[in-house]
Amino acid sequence: MPSGTFKPSREMALAARAWPFEEARKVVARIEKRAKAGQKTEKVLFETGYGPSGLPHIGTFGEVARTTWVRRAFEMMSDVPTGLIAMSDDMDGLRKVPDNVPNKEMMAANLGKPLTAIPDPYGTAESYGRNMNARLCAFLDRFHFDYDFRSATDMYKSGVYDDALMHVLAKYDEVMAVMLPTLGEERASTYSPFLPISPRSGKVLLAPVVARDVGKGTITYIEEDGTQETVSVKGGHCKLQWKPDFGMRWAALGIDYEMFGKDHQPNQGLYDRICRIAGGEPPEHFVFELFLDDKGQKISKSKGNGLTIDEWLTYGPEESIALFMFQKPRTAKKLYFDVIPKAVDDYIDLLRAYNSNETSAEQKLENPVFHIHNGNPPTETYPVSFALLLTLVSASNASDRDLLWGFIRAYAPHANPQDNPGLDRLVGYALRYYEDFVKPAKQYRAPTDKERAALADLADALENLGGERDSEKVQFEVYEVGKKHQFEPLRDWFKALYEVLFGQTQGPRFGSFAALFGCRETAAMIRKALDRAA
Question: Which domain holds residue 74?
Answer without folding.
Answer: 10-161+241-292
